[in-house]
Amino acid sequence: MQISRVALLLTISWCFSSCQSNHDCKFQIMVNRTYGTGLFSRGFCHFLGIPYAKPPRGSRQFRPPEGVNLQDFPAKFWNLTQRSENCIQYDFENNGLNGSEDCLFLNVYSKPWVSHLQPVVVWIHGGTFNFGSGFSDSADLPDLLINNNITVVTLNYRLGVLGFLYRERESVTRNNGLKDQQEALRWVQRNIAHFGGDPTKVTLMGWSAGSAAVSYHLYDSTSEGLFHAAIMMSGSFLNPWAYAPSPQTCLSTMCEQMQISCKNQGKLRETLEGLAIEKNQPLLTPITFFGMEFPCFVPSGPYPQMLVKRKPNIDVPLMIGYTSHETEQQIKFNYMENTLSNYDFPNSNRFDIIENYVRTQISEFNRTNLLVAADLIYGMVKFTEEYTSRTKSNTFLYKFSLGDAHHGDDLSLIFRETTYNTNDKTLDTTIKESQITSAKLVQLWSNFIKFQNPTPSLQPLLKVLWLPFNSSKGREYLNIGHNLTMENFSEDATYKIWDGFYECLYHGNCINVPN
């Protein structure tokens, strides 16, 4: 939805109407005669806790979201200065459930006094589809992107049981958490111009589970037209934690945990409502993949490994990548030698042989590397190859390798600028290098959001052109370390081993697996 420049200036001109200082003040916006108060802090506007859908409780529990606009409500004045509650999830600190069902809110961060609509990035948080919020992963500090004239939107979506429980022939909708994200994107199309954002230049960006969610939207026709470019950071739907191969197994496990019967077909919703599932669900229902435990309630449907073999519904420019060591630390900490898998595969005939081989024939060091590939890195590169082979838009692959880069180490360089006060010259050097790398990352990400190309031209900070990935011409990617270098992706030994297992378990091609 476009609005005239005059209307835009009228909308944003309310920003400083009640300013008292440059550090922390309130301002007003006007959206179709609906007034709202937000915050002005750190040099930009914060609109917090904007409802994009009705509370998904009562008759709306386990149903698709029902979208709203601010002007749909009886109230004509909105206080957009307070954070909304998180969606219901496990609270690690208090070892219990925390959050609310009334959680479908988003946040908008934008510059005041803009003379034209700015490109928009919509951020989807990580947390294996069971944890997190629009304020996690440092996304509540989008200062660096705002400074590059980008409007930032973050959002909550239903998690775990309430977002992803499913059984066929029940009055329970599949993948409501993903549908929540779509509804937030529809809100952006209808309303973001009032906040200075351009609805024709929306980039969908996510990290970890949020990145996997982006891949789901690329293959979903109902997401078409809701975004125009995508950024995937350390996650795709090909990662084992991003897909529930057997929702029935998850449901049965949960019912056993709750010591109830869920076998009455067609009565599942009624059973869970009677138990107040939103308050009494288990803290975590796990599923195990090669000894790695993941949350059970995540997106389900057709196997992504089959889905990725067809042309995506949405062909848009894509930036995608991972860190050099990814989930190595988590795997070393969580891997349990004696925990057998209960994960389902399309071709399960060779699974026991493969799992036994991994446990008994591969050294602990190589097994860790293999599981890091299986857990995340393989799925990123495989998704890149499959997507680029069936789309016309450019895809840009990267590896973030500054130091021993693990899962999420790149986030703080994009979302916030950290300042230090130290007399340690060695530490000063490290900090300076990190700040330089941060400036490079922000410039690359901002360029992509604005131009769908991370290096539209050589620039003082960016002295190398990032070439699109092409699986038949070198498989080039950008290595992001102290320097930016274009390199060719090459498969190491563990990558090749997992590729053989992947082809066997998902596609029945078992020529490269042990007998």
What descriptors fit this protein?
alpha/beta, disordered N terminus, 13-stranded mixed beta sheet, 515 residues
Given the helix and strand composition, which structural class is it? alpha/beta
Radius of gyration: 23 Å
Count every beta strand, where a strand is a DSSP E run of 2 or more residues.
Answer: 17
* Overall shape: globular
Describe this structure in words.
There is one protein chain. The protein is an alpha/beta fold and 515 residues long. Helices cover 31% and strands 19% of the residues. It is built from 15 helices and 17 strands. The chain has helices at 5-13, 143-147, 160-164, 176-191, 209-218, 247-258, 268-274, 277-280, 304-307, 328-334, 351-360, 364-388, 411-415, 425-451, 493-507, and strands at 24-31, 34-41, 44-51, 77-79, 89-91, 96-98, 105-110, 118-124, 151-155, 197-207, 229-233, 286-289, 292-295, 318-323, 395-400, 476-480, 484-488. Helix 12 crosses helix 15. The longest helix has 27 residues, at 425-451. The radius of gyration is 23 Å and the shape is globular.
